[in-house]
């Protein structure tokens, strides 16, 4: 079973209350790939990098079953670079630098070898690129998961609305759900958004976990209470990678299995924030992930013995 | 099995984005009593009211098994009055009026008939009053639950620290846990607070649910995603009443049963916010509560079938 992943492969420089790092590898597609490759291979990457993107990093990804045929390398430009500084609460951050570089030329072309994938993860890039990838696929994937952000709601809403009609699952955070729907109540927001196209909506609430909405059903997943969130960069993409990775591995698209996939995604994200960038994701093995998932089970399990 | 409840019985005038109400009955002890009396009788109230407190309200409470011998009625003063206005997000509010009135004279005297209660709920009043009640009891209750707030952390910290040494369970919200511990991470905050005396710490996170800490164990309870929070006044006290009510009813103080008690408290609180003040709490019956608890079970249950 394979997954096509559209997204950025980039460099980040990150400052948090706990420390500071120079250029380290980042980008939505990178995090998705590191997370999803724990469950399924190959991951078919659709991205763009510059002449500065590390060959070692490419090899590391390939060794994990990530195919890079769909990653365009632009010889005379640099990779997308982002730099940011997190505030004490880790929920808000200031962007210090955004150098789009190669991203200005990004026009993903789906290689012939990628056709026939049953799973498509549309990472957070411009809606017209997301739409272009959907339209290039000769067979519609069984499951299309969409990530997006407030920026596209403000600058490309009508394109985003077109994409929404074509996907199965939308992932956004709570403030984005409110913005997209114009509703403050997340329950009302979910009802509005589910009318826009997706059959499933995941609202990510950071340290407060996530909500899954489908029809009249709702599932509340906790986040693991952590002593320290060292660096939240990439946590949302890692969540997405664990989510779609589990679904692709099990090939079960029931609501019940979507719930499990959210727990798997949450477990992966809880590793991601422990060190800078994808460092921790590169260290963990399947046994670590299973142990973390058992912590989630313990965290929420209760028995009702009403007398 | 009986519960002694220390707290205010008061009048509130409330404005929310959904409406406005004139003087309606409120106060921490009122909400605790309405919630806990669903599970156990009698509730032995320790409070103070003025000459304006409704006799009908008193009768309503008595009909639910609430004993009022410990409620002092001050003939020449008015009851405590609070007026506030909630913002759109319902997590923040402005206090418009605080008329302490009889509260200035509050010096609770535990009636002889209250002695021997196995459960004590110390509602959010001055720590020296909470301490006074503990010291008046001839036999230490099996379980003492403490509610407090940031105001006392700022104005009466050393008294509060004395009370903390004498209680089993502390309930605070997330910002209060951070303030009391000086730690931003809630996990670290919990470790610090558990050193101050309580064996159990409940951190209430409003629409994001609650966390229970005990030794190295942690439990994450969701809040029910609601279409509308009509009026959050009293939700925390209602949660406390449901929590201690369930524990007093089952007489089981294990960690597992504390988890169930938090779900029961959350279910009661989810009713409280549906209408102004305690209106909804007066309407519900045991069947409504059990159905709501089943919604919580559905909300968080997931199966891990890792392949």
Secondary structure elements and their pairing?
The structure is a homodimer.
Chain A: E1 3-6, E2 10-16, E3 19-26, H1 28-36, E4 43-49, H2 55-63, E5 66-73, E6 81-86, E7 93-99, E8 119-122, H3 127-136, E9 143-147, H4 150-155, H5 157-164, E10 169-173, H6 174-181, H7 186-194, E11 200-204, E12 210-214, E13 217-221, H8 235-250, H9 255-272, H10 279-283, H11 286-300
What does this structure look like?
Two copies of one chain form a homodimer. Chain A has one domain: UDP-N-acetylmuramoyl-L-alanine:D-glutamate ligase (3-Layer(aba) Sandwich). The first copy, chain A, is globular, with a radius of gyration of 18 Å. Chain A is an alpha/beta fold. A nine-stranded mixed β-sheet of chain A has the order 5-4-1-8-9-10-11-12-13, sandwiched between helices. A four-stranded mixed β-sheet of chain A has the order 3-2-6-7. Chain A is built from eleven helices and 13 strands. At the A-B interface, α7, β13, α9 and α11 of A face α7, β13, α9 and α11 of B.
The helical percent of chain A reads 25-40%
CATH class of chain A: Alpha Beta
Indicate the multimeric state.
homodimer
* CATH architectural designation of chain A: 3-Layer(aba) Sandwich
Average residue pLDDT of chain A: 95
- Specify the overall morphology of chain A: globular
Using CB atoms under 8 Å apart, which protein chain pair has the greatest interface?
A: A-B, 42 and 43 residues
SSE ordering of chain A: EEEHEHEEEEHEHHEHHEEEHHHH
Task: Kindly report the spatial arrangement of strands forming the biggest sheet of chain A.
Answer: 5-4-1-8-9-10-11-12-13
Q: Radius of gyration of chain A from the CA trace?
A: 18 Å
CATH superfamily of chain A: Ribokinase
Number of helices of chain A: 11
Fraction of residues in β-strands of chain A: 15-25%
β-strand number of chain A: 13
How many structural domains can be distinguished in the coordinates of chain A?
Answer: 1
Regions with little confidence, pLDDT below 50 for 5+ residues of chain A: none
Q: Would you tell me which CATH topology of chain A applies?
A: UDP-N-acetylmuramoyl-L-alanine:D-glutamate ligase
């Amino acid at each position: 079973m394979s997954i096509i992943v559209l997204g950025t492969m980039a460099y980040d420089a990150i400052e948090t209350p706990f420390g500071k790092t120079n250029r380290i590898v980042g980008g939505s597609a990178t995090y998705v790939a590191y997370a999803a490759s724990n469950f399924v291979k190959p991951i078919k990457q659709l991205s763009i990098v510059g002449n500065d993107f590390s060959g070692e990093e490419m090899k590391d990804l390939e060794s994990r079953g990530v195919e890079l045929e769909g990653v365009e390398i632009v010889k005379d430009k640099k990779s997308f670079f982002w730099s940011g500084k997190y505030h004490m609460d880790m929920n808000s951050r200031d962007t210090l630098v955004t150098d789009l570089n190669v991203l200005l030329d990004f026009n993903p072309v789906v290689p012939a070898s990628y056709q026939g994938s049953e799973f498509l993860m549309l990472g957070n890039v411009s809606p017209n690129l997301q739409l272009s990838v959907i339209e290039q696929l000769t067979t519609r994937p069984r499951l299309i998961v969409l990530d997006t952000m407030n920026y596209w709601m403000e600058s490309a809403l009508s394109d985003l609305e077109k994409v929404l009609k074509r996907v199965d699952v939308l992932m956004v955070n709570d403030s984005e759900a409110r913005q997209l729907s114009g509703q403050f109540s997340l329950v009302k927001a979910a009802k509005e958004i589910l009318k826009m196209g997706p059959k499933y909506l995941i609202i990510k609430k950071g340290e407060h976990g996530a909500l899954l909405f489908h029809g009249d059903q709702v599932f509340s997943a906790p986040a693991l209470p952590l002593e320290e969130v060292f660096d939240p960069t990439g946590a949302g993409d890692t969540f997405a990678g664990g989510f779609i990775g589990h679904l692709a591995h099990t090939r079960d698209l029931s609501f019940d299995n979507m719930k499990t996939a959210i727990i798997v995604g949450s477990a992966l994200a809880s590793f991601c924030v422990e060190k800078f960038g994808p460092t921790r994701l590169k260290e963990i093995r399947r046994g670590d992930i299973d142990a973390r998932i058992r912590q989630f089970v313990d965290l929420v399990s209760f028995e009702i013995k009403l007398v």
